[in-house]
Amino acid sequence: MLYLLKTHYLHGPGPVYERAAKQGRMLPDGVRFVDSWIVDDEKLDVCYEVVETDDPALLDVWMQPWADLISAEVVPVIRSAEAAARVGLSWDGHPGPPLGGWK
Questions:
Q1: 54 CB contacts (<8 Å, ≥6 apart)?
Q2: Inside any domain, residue 75
Q3: 53: CATH
Q4: Closest by alpha carbon to 47, among 74, 7, 12?
């Protein structure tokens, strides 16, 4: 299952990047990092990360060593193609005609 984390850097980006440079992401076995994006503003203190795991309890394990530097909201997410399938449509997530076809 995929999870989106909206992570707030409590003391700015410096301490987070310093720890990551020394210790890595510290992901527990069973959590796979997919990608991350930082909000492009002067603060650079909000990060969106996507990770994958079959055991969501491992996300709490992962965040423990970071708890003094971050707070995070965790949301389970699905890919667009899966969402389309759930509403009875076929779409691969790429640009193209509207789902209902051109009118």
A1: 1, 30
A2: yes
A3: 3.30.70.1060
A4: 7
Tokens 């079959």 correspond to: 54
Residue at 99 is within a domain: no
Instruction: Give me the number of domains the chain comprises.
Output: 1
Residue ranges making up the domain that contains 13 = 2-86
Residue 95 pLDDT grade (very low, low, confident, very high; cuts 50, 70, 90): confident
**70-77 and 46-53 strand pairing:** unpaired
Question: What spatial distance separates the first Cα and last Cα of the chain, rounded to whole Å?
Answer: 36
- Indicate whether 14 belongs to any domain: yes
pTM higher than the cut 0.70: yes
35-72 pLDDT tens trace: 999 999 999 999 999 999 999 999 999 999 999 999 99
Q: For residues 99 and 84, is the Cβ–Cβ distance under 8 A?
A: yes
Q: Is residue 94 part of a domain?
A: no
